[in-house]
Amino acid sequence: MKKTELASTLAKFQRRYINNPNLFVREILGATPDDWQADVLDMVAGAGKYKEQKRRISCVSGHGV
Q1: N or C, fewer C-beta in 10 Å, the chain?
Q2: Over the stretch 14-50, which tens digit does the pLDDT of each residue have?
Q3: Which of the pair, 13 or 1, is modelled with greater confidence?
């Protein structure tokens, strides 16, 4: 594969998944996230829209609950 073809393929890949991590998890990793995981992935995707500000995402976790 030529460099230009590779760059084009990678650009298409990036455009498809850059703002949709849920789609990446399903199609590339072959996994189905739990509802709470899907929510966190959506938050991560949304955080990229605020380039001028740093965004932090946190979630509560329980052990043995």
Answers
A1: C
A2: 999 988 999 999 999 999 999 989 998 988 887 666 6
A3: 13
CA–CA dist 46, 64 (Å, integer): 30
Q: Is 50 helix (H, G, I), strand (E, B) or coil?
A: coil
Residue ranges per structural domain of the chain:
3-44
The H or E element that residue 9 is part of is: helix 3-17
CB proximity list for 24: less than 8 A, separation 6 or greater: 17
Amino acid at 39: D
Question: What letter represents residue 27's amino acid?
Answer: E
Q: Which sign, positive or negative, has the C-alpha torsion 23, 26, 28, 29?
A: positive
Confirm if 13 and 20 have CB atoms less than 8 A apart: no
